[in-house]
Amino acid sequence: MCYVANVGDSRAVMSGSNGKKLFPLSSDHKPDDKEETRRIEENGGHIYQTQAQTIQRNDKGEKQLVTIVGPHRVFPGRLSVSRTFGDIEAKVVAFGGNPRCVIADPEIKAFRIKKDHDFIAMGCDGIFDKLSSRDVIKVIWEAANKSQAKNIH
């Protein structure tokens, strides 16, 4: 048996059948997820995004006003995740928090390991904000195959 528990914006994905299959093993706990937004709002919190304006030059070199929008965040706490360990400002009432908004309840998946399961890749938002789950599995397979080819010679 394999058990995968997740809290926050890290992710676990499993490769199967030599990379031909992809099995998501966790969900990102982001405030803009429909279920997370519903849970947060039902418990007295809200989701917001910060905005700032700056002047940038376009392709023609002309100045233009551009609005930069930040990530979705949970109030209280100002976090860009909806589940986390710690984070006193988000959870402790004495510090302005609400223990029912940003929670530490993990998502848990359990499954039987099968012969066609290859490996599990785990990573943080720094990876998965830039690469899809499919791309991460592909990169790992490419690196493994390249390494194996080097070891043959």
How would you summarize the topology of this molecule?
Elements: E1 2-6, E2 11-16, E3 21-24, H1 34-42, E4 46-48, E5 51-57, E6 63-69, E7 73-75, H2 88-91, E8 107-111, E9 117-123, H3 125-128, H4 133-152
Antiparallel strand pairs: 1-8, 2-3, 2-9, 4-7, 5-6
Total helices: the number is 4
Mean model confidence by pLDDT: 94
Give the total of domains. Answer: 1
At CATH's second level, what is the architecture?
4-Layer Sandwich
The N- to C-terminal Cα distance equals: 37 Å
> CATH class, please?
Alpha Beta
Radius of gyration: 20 Å
Number of strands: 9
Strand content: 25-35%
Order of helices and strands: EEEHEEEEHEEHH
Largest sheet: 3 strands, antiparallel
Strands side by side in the biggest sheet: 3-2-9
Unreliable residue runs: none
Helix-residue proportion: 10-25%
What is the assigned CATH homologous superfamily?
PPM-type phosphatase domain
